[in-house]
Amino acid sequence: MNNLRLYLLVCLALWLVACAPGSSTEQLAIAIQVDGQARQLSIPAGSKVREALDAAGIELGELDRVDPPGYTQLADGDHLRVIRIAQEFETETVPMPFTSRTLPNEAIPGGEQRLIQNGVNGEQELGYRLVYEDGELISRIQIEAVVRVEPVEEIIMIGAQSPFSSLTIPGRLAFISGGNAWVLEGSSGSRRAVAITGDLDGRIFELSPDGSWLLFSRSSRSAGEINQLWVASLDEDEQTLIDLGVSN
Predict the structure, then answer these.
(1) For residue 132, what is the DSSP state?
(2) 159 DSSP β-pair partners
(3) Taking the CB of the first residue and of the last residue of the chain, which one, N or C, has fewer CB atoms within 10 A?
C-alpha cells in the first residue's frame, strides 16, 4: 500500500513538472533576416519575437524595427526581418526669383517702358531629412527653409501719356496722377512735372497762397514711418524737391 502511494506521488510530481511553464522541451525553427544575412535559430516553443532576438544576440538601434513586432508569439517555421533605419540631414542653397512691378508714369509716352530698378535674385537655404532602410534611401523630406538673401524686385515705368484737347486754365493748377505731382499753368496743354517719384500718397497736397510752392507727403519705406513731408518750388524749371524732415 505504501509503495502504491509513493508511486502515485512520483507520477503526480512528474506531471506537474511537465505542465510547468518553460518546462517543455519542444523547439521552434525560425529564420532571421538581419544585416544582409539569413540566420537560422532554434528557440523554445512559446517564445516571442523579442526573445528570439535576445537569443540570437541581435540588438536593435533606436530607430530600427522588426517585422513582425516584438510582442508577436512565434510558430515553427516563422521568418523575422530586422530593418536597420538610419537618418541624416542635408542642406542646399537655391535662388529665390525676384518679382517685377510696373508703375504707370504720365511723363513717359504711352507704350514706352523704362527700367527703373534691376531685379536681383535672393538666396534660400533648404534643409532636408533623409531616411534609409537597410542602406536604401526611402524618403527625403524638406523640414526647413531659411531666407539668406532677400530678392530685390524689378521696377519698370510704363508710359501713360495720352493725347488730350487743350483747355484754358486761369492761374496755376496742381494735381496728383500715378503718385506723381503735376502743374498746369495757362492751359491744360502746358503740363509740367513737379515730382516724378511715384510715391505721393495724397494725404497732404497743397499749394502755397501765392502759388509758388507745393507742399506734399510721400510714402515712406522706413520701419515705423508712414510718410514724409516735402516741398517743391513751382517757380523753377527744374524739379527741386526739399525734404522738410517731418514724418508721420
Answers:
(1) E
(2) 105
(3) N
Q: Say whether pLDDT at 65 is over 90.
A: yes
Q: Give the CA distances from residue 17 to residues 23, 24, 45, 58, 153, in Å, rounded to whole numbers and listed in that order.
A: 7, 9, 16, 31, 86
**Which ranges of 20-138 would DSSP assign to H, the alpha helix?**
49-56
The overall pTM is greater than 0.85: no
Share of the chain above pLDDT 90, in %: 57
> What residues contact residue 163 under an 8 Å CB cut-off, 6+ apart?
none
Cα distances (angstroms) measured from residue 85 to each of 60, 129, 182: 10, 13, 71
User: Which residues of 18-120 form beta strands (DSSP E)?
Assistant: 27-34, 37-44, 65-67, 79-83, 85-96, 100-109, 113-117
Question: Coil, strand, or helix at residue 2?
Answer: helix
- Cα distance from N-terminal residue to C-terminal residue, the chain: 118
What is d(CA 91, CA 123) in angstroms, rounded to the nearest whole number? 13
Among 55, 47, 53, residue whose Cα is nearest residue 66 = 53
Kindly report, residue by residue over 173-193, the tens digit of the pLDDT. Answer: 889 988 899 888 887 777 788
Count H helices, E strands: the chain? 2, 16
Sign for the CA dihedral angle at 131, 79, 33, 45 comes to positive
In this predicted model, what pLDDT tens digit does every residue of 129-158 receive, in sequence order?
Answer: 999 999 999 999 999 999 999 999 999 988
Report the side by side order of strands in the sheet with 113-117: 100-109, 154-161, 113-117
Q: Considering the chain, what percentage of its residues have pLDDT values greater than 70? A: 86
